[in-house]
Write a structure and sequence with these properties.
Layout: H1 16-24, H2 32-43, E1 60-62, E2 67-72, H3 90-113, E3 117-122, H4 123-128, H5 130-143
Parallel strand pairs: 2-3
Antiparallel strand pairs: 1-2
């Protein structure tokens, strides 16, 4: 793709087609923070499962202990510390993120009803200290 400044909007340096392409490349599974956390958990001797049919599709689970782990991206899940409302199409994005937050709560409630313990970890927690995030999972598993 070639960059054509005259086609970009005032607040975006990419054209709508370029922006659409960039957004389509964002992964929902096997993200860098998720992989870092899984490796840290595995190194502690905790064995997990990736495939599951649970509500909300947790990033990984510990079926014997009934623990589901979600790695939440700061942008996509509305991190209270890091989420910045986009300047362009902000009504859409605010609605989208609020919908994600509501869905996350519903998923947590549903998993709790099914007897699962839910651990949600922000991507910034993993980037800051992956060992601390892994320790949180390890302690939860030990307490059950």
């Amino acid at each position: 793709m070639t960059f054509k400044p005259e086609e970009a909007s005032d607040s975006d340096v990419l054209t709508p087609t370029q922006r659409s392409y960039c957004m389509s490349r964002i992964r929902g599974k096997n993200t860098r923070p998720e992989i870092l956390l899984r490796k840290a958990v595995w190194a502690r001797g905790c064995r997990y499962r990736l495939k599951n049919s649970l509500p909300g599709n947790p990033d990984f689970t510990f079926p014997q202990k009934k623990v589901a782990v979600f790695v939440d991206g700061c942008f996509w899940h509305g991190c209270p510390e890091h989420w910045i409302k986009p300047q362009k199409n902000n009504v859409f994005w605010e609605s989208k993120i609020q919908g994600n937050i509501s869905r996350d709560k519903i998923v947590c409630d549903r998993l709790n009803e099914l007897g699962w313990t839910v651990i949600r970890i922000w991507e910034h927690e993993i980037k800051a200290n992956v060992s601390l995030a892994a320790e949180r999972i390890f302690k939860t598993l030990q307490s059950l």
